[in-house]
Structure formats: structure tokens, C-alpha cells
Write a structure and sequence with these properties.
The chain has 125 residues and is an alpha/beta fold. The chain has a single domain, classed as Trna Endonuclease, Chain: A, domain 1 (3-Layer(aba) Sandwich). Helices cover 34% and strands 25% of the residues. The chain is built from three helices and seven strands; from the N terminus they run αβββββαβαβ. The chain has helices at 9-24, 76-92, 106-115; strands at residues 28-32, 43-44, 51-52, 56-60, 63-70, 96-101, 122-124. The strands form two sheets. It has a five-stranded mixed sheet with strand order 1-4-5-6-7. A two-stranded antiparallel ribbon has the order 2-3.
Length: 125
């Protein structure tokens, strides 16, 4: 999710639902951009003041995982660039990158992924 979309209660509610889903699956050291959790590390783009913060960062079996929440967005172009950046970052650092979505947002997520030629398995909650 981009910062503009995090401001609604519905999106924050889905983020907490995704966190509980991951906790049930054995993920530990969860960092999320929501109250009650530590904030994940932010990355600042050179030449601008724009920062990129993953929605959820967690560990399981010694491997770090980056999770992005995919909900319909007001600015899909920013979302695409964020996903591309996090995908490249996860490949460089040998992390796992997954996208979490829910009913009503599958089509948007699949279209967005196909537009940027990214092949990812979706976690559907």
C-alpha cells in the first residue's frame, strides 16, 4: 500500500488482519507500518524526498520475508514502482517478496502485476 491508501480505517483493518494471518503461519519478529508494531526500515529515493516502506517485514525459519498489501489504489503508478523496487531489493538481499490481497482486489492486483511483467504468487486472505 502506498501512504495515501494507508489513511483509511478499512485498509488499516486489512493490514492487521494480514498480520494475524502471518502470525498464525509461524512468522516472527513482525514489523509493520501500523500501531503496536515496530516500523520496518524505510528506503529514501535519491533526488527526492519520497520514502518507500514495506507494509510488513517478518521472519520464518531464518529467512526474511517482505509482504506488500494489494488493495485498489488511487495512484497505481506509485504502487507499481514500489513493488518493482521491493522485488529488486528482495532479490539482492535474498529475501522473499510476496503480495497479500483479499476478495474484491484480485483483478486489480493481477492486472497491476501483468502490467509490470512480475510473476508473483498471491496470498489470498
Amino acid at each position: 500500500m502506498i501512504t495515501l491508501d494507508k489513511e483509511t480505517d478499512k485498509n488499516t483493518e486489512f493490514l492487521t488482519q494480514a498480520i494475524s494471518y502471518l502470525q498464525d503461519r509461524g512468522f516472527e519478529n513482525i514489523k509493520a507500518d501500523v500501531d503496536g508494531f515496530d516500523t520496518p526500515k524505510s528506503y529514501i529515493r535519491r533526488g527526492s524526498e519520497m520514502s518507500i516502506t514495506p507494509d510488513i517485514v517478518a521472519e520464518r525459519d531464518g529467512e526474511k520475508h517482505i509482504f506488500e498489501i494489494s488493495l485498489k489504489s488511487k495512484k497505481p503508478r506509485l504502487l507499481k514502482s514500489k513493488w518493482l523496487f521491493l522485488d529488486v531489493l528482495s532479490q539482492m538481499k535474498k529475501f522473499r517478496f510476496r503480495i497479500v490481497t483479499t476478495r474484491g482486489h484480485y483483478k486489480f492486483t493481477n492486472e497491476t502485476l501483468s502490467e509490470i511483467n512480475m510473476e508473483k504468487k498471491l496470498i489470498k486472505i
